[in-house]
Each structure stands twice: as C-alpha cells, then as structure tokens.
C-alpha cells in the first residue's frame, strides 16, 4: 500500500535551484487539512507524509495536521522538511503523533548545500533539526536531488548520514518544473555522466550499512544497481525504448530532458530488474510532492541537431598558418618535445 501525501501549502523559507514550485504563481499559505480530506486519504493508505512548501513555518498548523491524521487512523505520519524550525518543535510533533521526518540534503558540507537552497546557514539548521528529531525518537531519512552542481560530491554524503543516525538515503533525478525548468541547463545534469557518480555513492552507502535508493533514472543507465530503484510515475520515452524488457517498470526521462538530448544515452535492456519498493524504508520516500505544471517553454535545439549543424565535429581544424608552414605533429612527437614527461614511466 503506497504512502499518501498531502501538501499543507506552498510557502517556503528557501529558494532552492531545483524547486519544482518556484514560478510566477503566488504561494499558498500553510493551512491544516480538513478531516474529510484526511479520511479520504486514509481509505487508501495507513501512512501519510505532510509536505509543502515548508510545513515547519507554521508549527501550530503542522501539529494540528499531525494530530488530525492520527485521529483518523493513520499509523505512520511523516513530514517532508528542509529542517527550518524543526529543532524547536520536533519533540512536540512526536508527542502529537509524528513518526518520521524526511529531509532534503544537497551536499555533505555547507558550501554545496547552501548553494542549492539559496540560504546561507541552512546546512547547520538542517542538522540541528535532524539531531532534535532523533532525540525525540523519530525516524529520519534524506533525499538528495541529482544536479550538475552536486553529482561529483555524492560519494561524501553516505558516511555523513550514517554518522548522524539517518536511516536511509535517496538520490532523485529531478523533474524539470518550476525553477528546475527555468534554469534547466544550469540545474539538470547529463545523466550518462552523472549517474555513475550516483551509483558509486550508493555502493559506498551499502558498505557503511546505510540503506540507499535511486528514483527517476532510466533503468538502462543504472546497470546492476537498477535493483535499488524505487518506483516513480512514468515520464516520457524515446523510440529507443521500444522493445525494452524493462519498459513497463521504467520511469523513462523527463520530457524536457528528452527534447534537449533526444534519448541518445538510452539502450534497451534485455532483463526486467526488480525494484526496491518492497523494502520498508523505501516507502518513506514519497517524491517531491506538489509541483508546478509542465508549461510550454522555449528550449534549445536537441544536441544532435546542433552537432550536425557544426562545420566540423571532433578534432579542431588547424589554423591557416599551421597548415601553410608545417605538418601536424602526432602524439608521439611529445616524447621529443617534452622528454621529461616520459622519464618516470621509462625508469619505473
């Protein structure tokens, strides 16, 4: 049974570069849900995660929502938060019936994390909230959104999480909505380049005993780690996906990403890997919550079209003076020009 989700509003304390809500639409104030809405969700799930925006900006509203969720029969109640204000209210939320906390972590140090949130000091605030949640007996899990600015340092995160008592970790390929759509080329990484770093980080997590998952990545790019994938709603597919054995369980690609890169990284799989959905900790990762709608936008032409339009692709053309005066040098000529580069190799 999939965990229910409910947004309390879209007001937030951060300005994250991957925010799926940041656009021209006004933010909605945080407000407690109706009992009728909670009862309707309870009919399909026994667990719920309350999100936003940032729910901790209205502590009374959040605590009221937690109590109401408990009263209608939810046995597991979580909050998805950036950590703002959590340190001051974790204990009271636990008393009201909160069972788990899902935080967003963008890097293993303040420099990386605060860059993504747009708020200096947010890294330290987050960890104060995590410490308070752990002291209150709450389960804590963390999600890191894969971006162009963090994928090379993902491997530093698992050890930090394990040391801070975080139960599980999740690497999420972003959806191009809101700010992540407006600044697509700034935010969205080339997946064939970024995912190997994510897979290496997941392996480090396994070694240190931290449960770790990935979502939103085409299964053909995950190789043997596809079994760590958790299900998300399907996005878009390329004609290369036709005939792939994993098509029915694969999330595909974000449509804007697919339009930008034309699916040139994709390869059909011959197997259908099992997901990690059955693992208890995986159910705590419910996705980004409410998002801005996919809207028409001007995109760059697909990269393949740009390559075909270039006068030469690959090795640069020699300058006119070089062509007129001498022939091109091969790589072997380096031995004659810079012999010191090769001394250590030959001596060793």
TrEMBL record:
Pfam families registered for this protein in UniProt: Radical_SAM
Radical SAM core domain sequence ranges: 1-198
Keyword entries, A-Z: Iron, Iron-sulfur, Metal-binding, S-adenosyl-L-methionine
Single GO MF annotation: iron-sulfur cluster binding
Xref: InterPro entries: Aldolase_TIM (IPR013785), Radical_SAM_PqqE_MftC-like (IPR050377), rSAM (IPR007197), rSAM_sf (IPR058240)
Single biological process term from Gene Ontology: heme biosynthetic process
Entry-linked PROSITE patterns: RADICAL_SAM (PS51918)
Cofactor: [4Fe-4S] cluster
Xref: PANTHER family: PQQA PEPTIDE CYCLASE (PTHR11228:SF7), RADICAL SAM DOMAIN PROTEIN (PTHR11228)
UniProt protein name: Radical SAM domain protein
């Amino acid at each position: 049974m999939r965990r229910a989700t409910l947004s309390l509003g879209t007001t937030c304390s951060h300005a994250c570069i991957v925010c799926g809500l940041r656009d021209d639409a006004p933010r909605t104030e945080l407000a407690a849900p109706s009992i009728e809405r909670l009862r309707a969700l309870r009919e399909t799930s026994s667990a719920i995660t309350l999100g936003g925006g940032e729910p901790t900006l209205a502590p009374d509203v959040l605590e009221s929502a937690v109590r109401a969720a408990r009263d209608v029969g939810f046995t597991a109640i979580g909050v998805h938060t950036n950590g703002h204000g959590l340190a001051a209210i974790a204990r009271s939320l636990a008393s009201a019936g909160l069972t788990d906390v899902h935080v967003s972590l963008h890097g293993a140090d303040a420099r990386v994390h605060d860059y993504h949130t747009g708020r200096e000091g947010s890294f330290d605030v987050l960890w104060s909230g995590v410490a308070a949640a752990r002291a209150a007996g709450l389960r804590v899990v963390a999600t890191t959104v894969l971006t162009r600015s963090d994928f090379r340092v993902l491997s530093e995160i698992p050890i930090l999480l394990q040391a801070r008592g975080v139960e599980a970790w999740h690497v999420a390929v972003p959806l191009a909505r809101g700010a992540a759509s407006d600044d697509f080329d700034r935010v969205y990484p080339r997946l064939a380049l970024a995912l190997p770093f994510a897979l290496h980080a997941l392996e480090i997590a396994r070694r240190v005993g931290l449960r770790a998952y990935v979502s939103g990545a085409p299964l053909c790019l995950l190789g043997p780690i596809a079994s760590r994938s958790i299900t998300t709603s399907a996005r878009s597919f390329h004609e290369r996906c036709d005939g792939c054995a994993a098509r029915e369980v694969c999330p595909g690609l974000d449509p804007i990403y697919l339009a930008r890169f034309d699916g040139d990284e994709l390869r059909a799989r011959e197997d259908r890997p099992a997901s990690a959905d059955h693992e208890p900790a995986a159910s705590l990762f419910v996705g980004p919550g409410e998002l801005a709608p996919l809207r028409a936008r001007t995109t760059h032409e697909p990269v393949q079209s740009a390559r075909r339009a270039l006068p030469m692709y690959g090795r640069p053309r020699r300058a006119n003076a070089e062509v007129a005066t001498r022939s091109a040098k091969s790589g072997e000529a380096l031995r004659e020009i810079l012999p010191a580069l090769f001394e250590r190799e030959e001596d060793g």
